[in-house]
Design a protein that fits this description.
alpha/beta, five-stranded mixed β-sheet
Length: 554
Amino acid sequence: MDAAGAVGGEAFINYAVEIAEFLNSLLLGGPLAKARIDFIVSHLISLLPPPSVPAPDDDGSSDSDDEHFSLSSSSSSDGGATAGVDLPAVVMAPRVDGLDHIGRLPDDLLSNIISRLPTNEAARTMVLSTRWRLVWAATPLLVDDAHLRATNESREMSAFCAVRAVSRCVAAHPGPIRAVRITRTSFDEQEYALQRLVASLAAKNVQDLILFNRPWSLDMPLPDDILSCAYLTRLYIGIWRWPFLDTTAHPPAFPNLQELGLFHTIIEDKGVDALLAQCPKLKIFSFAMAFNCPSRLRVKSRSLRVVVEWRCSFVEVIIDDAPCLERLLFESFGDRRPVKIVHAPRLEILGFLDLQLHALEIGGTVISVGMNVSACAMLPSVKILSVKVRFWNDMEAKMLPTLLRCFPCLETLHVMSIRSRSPDTVDDMDFWKSLASCDCLDSHLKTFVIHGVQGRKHEAWFTRHILKNGKVLKSYGILYSDGDDAKVERLPMSCTVGEGNAPSGGSSGKYVFAHPAFPCWSFQNAIDLSLEDPFYVLGRVMAWIDLVGGETTH
């Protein structure tokens, strides 16, 4: 499946065949590749930003695509404008005073109302009156194929009708297009319709585009006119091949783009470089379920603030030059790969760093267990670190103290303990007893959360090391693993440490104040810059613990 070694477009000629063979070989007697891909696509769509206007409930009452979507441009008078319209959908409630209150609203409010309606219902407002027709024409259009789908037709006919409905909607609207969301439509064998649709979107200055191709085929190329959508501020594409490898001779194709997501998109390594060069204002860049295409993720951008890799099979991730990067986030699977951070001076949030899958390299130095960490292998800008570790594995457990030395100004540490029935590989408690403190424990670490407590020896000693040496520690959280039978009785707890908050009564020592804590890790939270911590949130105080005396008070 690895296409990295192939030359040019030859790398992707047999991609769909290879993917199908790979998926069919996973489980003998299980679902075939197409069913697996359908499941993958459904999962990918669940990761997308929610629609601006939810799709209306489909009651199956209509069996005609034209009844679901009507864009008649009749120029008849207002009295005859309701011909052919489903009257119950548009007739107003009885008016007590006989006045048309909605009609008395200013045009900008009417336009706001139209913008909040599903696509087909918004289009139907133009048959109400000449004024409504003019307001609809001036309202920036929102198109969602979930609003236009036919209900009682075959899958093949529904795909054809969906492409036709979206194209008619875009062509009929004389004004600008604000947002287009296409997630339920297959463009297979409809290349010409796809080209015309994308060209129309570019001509009408689309700003927000989510464009998915429901398989098959998996390697259908995007049309050239996608590079003409210069007004885009957000773009998510899924199940496509990105065919543009060298666009350096052209001016930036996406001068206003701030958010870009590539979902199961086939793109060569050098295609990523060319694409990032076309986005001078890009802030958020995400890959989801990319299977070896590209094989390496190399990030070089002067504007990026967030990079997310979500269940991709990269062989290497390189942050080459990202002076504004604040968040580097992973939800990885597959084989072990290097994560190389060359230049990211503003990086603040890193995780989940999986110690089984990720081999961290900072400034050209490979981070290994027990090494002396030099200044060039440190990232003092990192404030939040999330790590996945298997405490039964001696090398992974002992990597944690080394990681702490790489982030001297770390303020929040999240550790997810991966569940396993395997016994501890080595019972080396002397390692933890002789372990010295480090800069982040001495003066910066304020929050420590451990998720999936299993009672491992390494787990207990590492926790004891943090509590003993964390001189400014203020929050300590515990979230029990899903397999813990006692999780109902023992609430997920987080604790606050601070002598200034010690209870009165003459006692002295270091106190832990407990809060409920809740995981919030998701793709949407990963790309949400408004969240200070995309991993966990804490609730109100529930108890305090005297760490010196070992007492617990509720």
